[in-house]
Design brief:
This protein is α/β, with parallel strands linked by helices. It is built from 14 helices and 13 strands. The chain has 3 domains: about 250 residues, Rossmann fold (3-Layer(aba) Sandwich), CATH 3.40.50.620; about 100 residues, no CATH class; about 45 residues, no CATH class. The longest helix is centred in the C-terminal third of the chain and has 20 residues. The two termini are about 40 Å apart. The structure holds adenosine monophosphate and zinc ion.
Length: about 450
Amino acid sequence: MPVPNKEQTVNIYCCGPTVYRDAHVGNLRTFLLADLIVRALKMDGQKVKLIQNITDVGHMSEDFQGEDKLLQQAQLEKRDPFEIARKYEAGFHQDLKRINILAADSYPRASETIDLMLQTIATLISSGHAYATDQGSVYFDARSFPGYGAISGNKLDALKPGHRFEYGDEGDKRFHADWALWKSAGNRTEMVWESPWGKGFPGWHIECTAMSLKLLDSRIDLHVGGIDLRFPHHENERAQSNAVIGHEAVAMWVHGEHLLFEGRKMSKSSGNVVLVQDLITRGLDPLALRFALLENRYRSQMDLTWAALDAANATLRRWRTAMATWGDSDEVIADEEITTAIAKDLDTPRVMLRLRTIEKSTSHADATKRAIFLHADALLGLDLNRPIEVHPLTPEQSELLNSRAAARIAKNWSESDRLRDLLALAGIAINDGPDGQSWSWI
Ligand code: AMP
Ligand code: ZN
């Protein structure tokens, strides 16, 4: 990355959530990538500014062409779409806190940035990069931007008509690869705004152009998102942003690979969508998610499992316990191997391995171990200095544990799950291993 000097702030934009459902652990993997970058830069003494948008309008569903994800969910929950948006937005912030993601400098909402988007669209029309149609929509003219395809490799001549469109009714486009900046409201009555082209709503890609250019002064050093956003979202955003400012807006695009769960893509239909709340219900520390994710490289596809999360939770506890036995000093020491691993494209698995080596090392004094772990924790965000609570079980808790063990032996799974949830509420985590049930305080 062309790193600005230390006086200059590193400007980062990370595509945020579409707030029509809770963020799953895959989404959080991408948000954690941005957090890791922020922490690594800060550790290096850089000033950082992070903007993360909240998409609460205009993101169409792949499953139902022409349906806005939010409006669809609002119909399902029989609630006002803005109420849905605020509900899931609050859930998103709660999840970020639970996994120790440092707050961004701002979280602009698409629905509150409409004027800025309208101005950006007007600029694109006046410079010949966009056109309005008789039906009241505005499209980006893909052929007006010769550099299209540079991030994803999808050049315009390779995009055949009939590749998936974002909206069902795009008959008024001049060219099949053009995309909507503004969509005429048509029959839609909710989440529509007045515009110079009539009532309508913004396309998804334009919000990121409008917000990133405005809030980061047209200089985005790093733009982060999941790999699925590379095309068309980021390819289209790049064309829009570069067309507005006349040069490359983003110095570096960083795409995190996807997370699978138990070997499969997370999807509602497969029933394997995992949320932070599911970890908590299982009695795991949410930071076990962070731990497990850090054990993999962001560029590699990763298969997360409950076994990996249980193991991460156990190691996290072991490290916290060890930290307390290594003393109580606030001294920090940078370990060269860790610093080098991070500088080499965020090699977090190597950092975790190094910490395991130091934990077991006989050549490091306890105080040194503690100081290295404390220093690394500023990067890892695992709350390693958190004291482990030790207090005795109440008779009721012992009874619950015994009943749970009995239910498991009797293969009464629904009862054993029910008791596990009750124990989790009491702050007790259960781990099922080959030797039966074990427990720990959450
Ligand atoms: P969304 O809320 O669907 O707009 O997605 C928010 C972010 O999560 C985007 O950067 C996506 O690329 C990313 N994302 C979606 N699914 C996954 C996944 N399974 N693993 C990692 N990142 C994902
Ligand atoms: Zn975006």
